[in-house]
Amino acid sequence: MLFGRRAGKIKRLLIVEDEPLVAFDNEHFLIDIGYTVVVTTDDAAKAMAAIAVGGIDLILSDVALARGSSGVEVARAAMAADIPLLFVTAACPIDAPSLAIGCLAKPYTQRALKQAIEAVETRLHGGTPKRIPPGLTLY
């Protein structure tokens, strides 16, 4: 495809979100635009089990999760497995720059989520993103 969008390396996503409507909307939107959602879960233990299985290119994680668990736990497991993580949350933890590739502030639009993933991919491959959506901070 001469002028088409190049095939990205980020294809398989893990969604860690405790708000059911947000999780549902994100999962279906991301599938509709061509990503594979490996697992959608609302707690750290299930996310860490998915990380252990592997096959994940990027993790989208809220910070406050179900049953008192935390996205920070997920971020530490992701670091150990060398999987990039983007926090998608209302308030990023203070240590987010050492745990994640970035943070997308809630509320965000589907367009901002798509652009955030594209910006993360560009950054992972050593480039400078052309578009940074509102609410996205890259580290």
Protein described:
The protein is an alpha/beta fold and 139 residues long. It has a single domain (12-138), classed as Rossmann fold, CATH 3.40.50.2300. Helix content is 37%, strand content 19%. The chain contains 5 helices and 6 strands; from the N terminus they run βαβαβαβαβαβ. The chain has helices spanning 20-32, 44-53, 71-80, 96-99, 110-124, and strands at residues 12-16, 36-41, 58-61, 85-89, 102-105, 136-138. It has a 6-stranded mixed sheet, sandwiched between helices. Helix 2 packs parallel to helix 3 (71-80). The chain is globular and about 40 Å long. The N and C termini lie far apart (32 Å). The model is unreliable at 1-6 (pLDDT under 50).
* Assembly of the depicted chains: single chain
Return the CATH topology.
Rossmann fold
How many distinct domains?
Answer: 1
Mean pLDDT comes to 94
What is the CATH architecture annotation? 3-Layer(aba) Sandwich
Helix and strand content put the structural class at alpha/beta
SSE topology string: EHEHEHEHEHE
The proportion of residues forming helix, as a percent range, comes to 25-40%
Largest sheet, if any?
A: 6 strands, mixed
At the fourth CATH level, what is the homologous superfamily?
Answer: Response regulator
Low-pLDDT runs = 1-6
Radius of gyration: 14 Å
In terms of DSSP E residues, the strand content is 15-25%
Span of the ends, CA to CA: 32 Å
Overall body shape: globular
Count every helix, treating DSSP H or I runs of 4 or more residues as helices. Answer: 5
